[in-house]
Every structure is written in structure tokens, then in C-alpha cells.
Amino acid sequence: MEIPFSRPYLRGDEGERVAATIASGWVSQGPRVREFEAAFAERVGALDAVATTNCTTALQLALYVMGVGPGDEVIVPSLSFIATANAVWQNGATPIFADVDPLTYNIDPDVIERAVTECTTAIMPVHQLGLPAEMESILELADRHGLAVVEDAACAVGASYRGQRIGSLGPLACFSLHPRKVITTGEGGMIAVNDPDVAARLRMLRQHAMNVSDLTRHNAKDVVLERYPERGWNHRMTDMQATLGLCQLEVLDEIRSDRARLAARYTEALATIPAIEPPFDPDYAERTWQSYAVRLVAGAPDRTELMRALLKDGIPTRRGVMAIHEEGAYAAAAADLPVTEDVTRNTLMLPLFAGMTDAQQDHVIERLAVHAAALVAA
Q1: What domain range includes position 351?
Q2: How many other CB atoms sit within 10 Å of the CB of residue 223?
């Protein structure tokens, strides 16, 4: 049995709806993008939302409008995809790596507190694998120190923290719409915004800082001469992508429900497999289960050998979340992060996606148990 590690959940009518968008003549950023932004904002409880090319450009723009620039420091977890740090670097600032909580794998507010310096301008918490970070403590800390907060919510579309939706808590939250995330537009990102002035500036910056949009010029009844009051970027989403995004929002609850069901089946099964622990699932948050990361504890088999054995049975896996400070790109950054280093070495992601069948998952569980036992015995 060949099982994909991840797969987008598509209903089947997406092609027809995207084709209709193409037939309308709008293939770049236009009315469907604005419709998608409004629907997304409503779904995550934000005042507004601004679409971008991907989550990395969303993070870069969000940090930029919050005033992050050369000479500044932004506190981020090292336990994250490298895009978290790259977005800081793209603004000329320096990522300062903080350690994570050993249970949630999210940035530890106490460590953030100790990392604040006179150069710190922002905190960028990551809702790791769709589990919300401790936003109450982080927002309080930021307010006390006068720091901006930009949430890396790449994996957290549909998640909530203490009953509040991710996207409604802080000033800016950035989501990914990559195929491995909860919903997808192929490539794409979205910034949930809770200040209308910031939303307006973000819309300018993503289109070379042009003071009028293409849609406004198209609908104008007189000549419109655009101006460029500042420098910007080309981070626009297309209407074709936005149409797919609207389709995906319609099935978001279905996707989240199926992911949660599959995660519960994994957790129940792991109770019978020694030395492999399920992820911590706190009662203060509703996560998205974007990925299911198990932990290999004392007595567990070698992770690489286990991954190799599973792959031979048609079961692809992924290593735990990377530690950015251990990669060559950021190796010069001084960091004492024992929890991060332990987590990245001893976690393993199992296949999980909406639409995964019980038979597929049972195959993963059965082979995981067999190979774990065999490798330990060897």
C-alpha cells in the first residue's frame, strides 16, 4: 500500500469554478481576491484580511508595517520552518532564537522575557503544527515592553485559543495556503488584520505601493493616474488562486473534523506501542492537526532507521520540526536551546490528511508497531 504523507482535500468542483474565473477575464488580482479576503477574515474573526503570494511574504510585509527594519531584533522560536527567520532577515532585522515549551513545542513566554533587549522591536510566535501558542502571556509581555506582535499562524487556519479564533487575538496573524497546510490555494498566504489603516497600507505594499488597485482603475469612470508614495513589492495573489481558496473555506470544517478524528485514532493506537508518545493536546486550545508529530522516548528505535523501514512499506514520514539555528544559514546565531534541540532530534511526523482512509491509517499503525519492535530488539 502506497500512502501519501500529505494531500490537499479537494471536493471535485474546483476546476469548474476556477475555469469560470478564467472565463471572466480576471486572472490576476481582482474581484475574487477581494471576495476571498472578506470570507477569510470572517472565518478567522478578523476585521479584514490581505492576500499575498505565500506565508513568507505575508510575514515579511506584516513585520515591515509594524516598523521592523535594520538594526532591530525579533524574538522567534528556532523550532520552526526556516521561513520564520527568513522573513525577519528580509526586513534587515536579526532573528533572536528562543526556546520552546517541552510539551507544546511552542515558544516559551518566560524565555521571551529573558531575551528582550533594547534592540527588540517585535515577537513572532509560531502556532506550531496548528497548536496555538500561549497568546495571553505573549500579548501581555509585548504590551509591557512596547513590542509588536506578528503571529506565524502558517499551520493554524481554523484553530482557536481559549475560545478565541487565531486571527482575532493580535494585530496581525499570517497564514499559509500551501498544499501541506489545512486549506490551500496552491501557493498563497493571508494576513489577518485588525486595523483598517494597516490593512490599507498592506494592500498598497503588496502591489509596488501603488496608491490605487487594478480593480479600482478597471471600474473607474474617468482616467486614473496611479502614484507610488513609497517603495513596495509584488506579492499579489491571483483570482484563480482566490477562487480555489473560496472553495476550500467551504470545506474547512469538514477538513478539520476529519483531521481531528484521524489524530484521535493515532493517539489511541499509540497507547499500545512502547517508547512512542502521542503529541500533547492541551484543553485550552483547539488545534488544526496540520501534522501529527510523535515523540520517540527512552528505548525507542533510531529515528532514521524507523523512517527508512516505514518508507520501504510505502509509508513516507518526516523528521520533527527543524531547529533553524542548526542550519548553515543561521549557524552563526548564538543560541542555547536545549529543549528545541531535543525536540527536533526525537520527533517524527506520521502521514495525516483529510480523506485518509481507516485502512490507510491502520496500515501505518500496524507497520509502525512492527518496525518499532523489530528495531528495538535488534
Answers
A1: 253-377
A2: 6
Are 52 and 237 spatial neighbours (Cβ–Cβ below 8 Å)?
Answer: yes
Determine the 3-state secondary structure of 42 from DSSP.
Answer: helix
- Spans in the chain with pLDDT lower than 50: none
Domain count, the chain: 2
Question: Percent helix, strand and coil across the chain, each rounded to 5?
Answer: 40, 15, 45
Torsion sign over Cα 277, 280, 281, 286: negative
CATH classification of the domain holding 258: 3.90.1150.10
CATH number, domain of 68, equals 3.40.640.10
Residue 179 lies in a domain: yes
Residues that are catalytic: 181
281 and 225 fall within a common domain: no
Task: Give CA–CA dist 142/112, Å, rounded.
Answer: 10
pLDDT digits (tens, 9 = 90+) for 104-144: 999 999 999 999 999 999 999 999 999 999 999 999 999 99
Total-model pTM: 0.95
pLDDT digits (tens, 9 = 90+) for 66-107: 999 999 999 999 999 999 999 999 999 999 999 999 999 999
3-class DSSP assignment, residue 213: coil
